[in-house]
Amino acid sequence: MDQAIFYGLALIAIVGALATIFFRNAMYSVLALVVTFFAMAGLYLQLKAEFVAVVHIIVYAGAIMVLFLFVVMMLNLNSVNTIIRSNVNIKWIAVLVGVGMAGILGYGTYLTTLPARGVNSTENGTVKVLGKMLFNEYLLPFELTSVLLIATMVGVIVLTKKEE
Amino acid sequence: MYPIIILSLAGILSMFIGAYKLKKLALPAVLVATLAAFVSNFLPQNLHDAPVYSGMLKFDSFAVNFSAVLMGITLVILILSRRYYRDNHEHLGDIYALFLFSVVGGMIMVGSYNLVMFFVGLEILSIPLYILATSERNNLLSNEAGLKYFLMGSFITVFLLLGMVLIYGMSGSFDFGAISAYLSSTPETPVLVKLGVMLIMIAFIFKISAAPFHFWAPDVYQGSPAVIMVFMSTVAKTAAFGGFLRFLTQAIAPIGDSFTPLLAVLSALTITIGNLMALNQNNLKRLLAFSSIANAGYVMLALVGLGVNSSSTVLYYMLVYSIANVITIAVYLTVKESLGSGSIDGLKGLYQSKPLLTFCLVLAMLSLAGIPPLAGFIGKYAVFVEALHNGYAWLVVLAALNSAIGIFYYFRVMRTAFQNAEEGPVTVPYVLGYSTVLVICTLVLLVLGIFPNVVLNGW
């Protein structure tokens, strides 16, 4: 049963990802991406990572997708007809490199005996466990992320504020 | 740890200074803070040989020395920026804050003892750089540089994260000590771990702009404002080298040897491409970009022959290279201010009007080319010795041949400075802000050349 759900979700995720690339209409692409994100959230749930699953839906399927849709509508990218690249060969090199990369990673996984699955207690992946980790072990990186966020915010202001 | 705290707070302070329109105060405040951080770095309480904060950070002598170099170069570049931003840049406070945050990221990287910290450090280092590269908003080239750097940089981050995840998945820990223990306890290293290390290596090679991920460097360096460009090619690169050296020696030391051949090939490729491409450049910033690619290749020689002295060798080389780079940019800015040209031909007639300025330039170029009595030669010699330890004679021969190619374009810059200008001697006034930097850097370069043991073998 577990396996059947996994393969089902994985299939949906892959089909969604492929659809994102192959749709000509940018709007459809964005919607296909939402499907992928939901399937991924399902996979997280299966790993008992409830918090990650919920955050994934709220942040990616919610906020980021809305941002994508806004951009698509604002720039009126409903259909991509113009060929942006003058050099077609680059496309094929990119495909080659991508497939090669996927092949290497897949073959690597095939060759490796993966470590045994961890203990599957009910506590795993809950907000409680995560919070404890975040404020004990990972307190320092957590605090330092604030420097990262502040740098990003300042950056947005530096780049976009109109000069007086 | 102290310098990280001081500089983070100083960055926030600098933003407040900008908000209250006290622009005159911004640079002095930032300079004092950096100086304070520099001094606090050497306090005995700052030095911990064991990892602190649940094993996140290990501020040992390696991290302290690298941090000192990062802050020292930043100090010099900040002095350089006083004159550069004289036109009352609107976001001066914010720009200084971004400088400081970037250094904070670099220090986190060289002090990290956990992959999560490593990643956070790399991002804190990079994101301010993307913004700084774009900070000349009215300049189209600067916009292109920022966008290019941002897109490629964020794409490369994906590789880094995938590599980290693969290593975590197999070893079950982000901690460098735990990863190292796992690797020495498993007789045969799983392929996935090796792939993970390779992916992290890709991110590192991108950050130091080594081949085959060097394509962004010339455009980004040429387009960025000169002060930012010198910051990218010195501080950011030193931090990337420090961080990767850390990962190589602390986390994956048991299997480090299996990556040596790959590093050797990449190093050879980087040196050759950098030097050959530099031969035909007319823009001084672009020339420095290719020279920076070539120099990254030389430093990789020290990683190929990873030994006891590798850390100090890398540090010494990067320090000397950075100082020579800062001198070149200071001369370039002085000349550009009066002539407005960024090409090498703009240096014509410099010797007639300003012999001292030419002297500084010649010193920097000779050091970059690696001519014997100067610090650059000792740095090159040290990395060659490191690579020879590991039996990579072919690589050293290739690197030495490439040094000879390097002499061509470094000497071309020098020769142009000695040529007579067609329209008579040009008048290049000395500029106080740049001259201060020139004096400091020239002195440090000479001292490092005469007493290399201050840094080399010093710890």
What labels would you give this structure?
heterodimer, A: 164 residues, mainly alpha, Four Helix Bundle (Hemerythrin (Met), subunit A), 74% helix, B: 459 residues
**Category by helix and strand content of chain A:** mainly alpha
Fraction in beta strands of chain A: under 5%
Distance between the termini of chain A: 63 Å
Shape by Cα distribution of chain B: globular
Query: Please, how many helices of chain A?
Result: 6
Number of domains of chain A: 3
Morphology of chain A: globular
Distance between the termini of chain B: 19 Å
Quaternary organisation of the protein chains: heterodimer
| Largest sheet composition of chain B | none
> Could you tell me the mean pLDDT of chain B?
87
Q: Output the CATH homologous superfamily of the largest domain in chain A.
A: NADH-ubiquinone/plastoquinone oxidoreductase chain 6, subunit NuoJ
Topology:
The complex is a heterodimer of chains A (164) and B (459).
Chain A: H1 2-22, H2 26-46, H3 50-75, H4 89-111, H5 127-135, H6 139-160
Chain B: H1 2-19, H2 23-41, H3 61-84, H4 92-111, H5 115-133, H6 140-171, H7 176-185, H8 191-207, H9 216-223, H10 226-251, H11 260-278, H12 284-304, H13 310-339, H14 350-353, H15 355-369, H16 375-389, H17 393-418, H18 432-450
Helix pairs in contact in B: 1-2, 1-4, 2-3, 2-4, 3-4, 3-10, 3-13, 3-18, 4-5, 4-10, 5-6, 5-10, 6-8, 6-9, 9-10, 9-12, 10-12, 10-13, 11-12, 11-17, 12-13, 12-16, 12-17, 13-15, 13-16, 13-18, 15-17, 15-18, 16-18
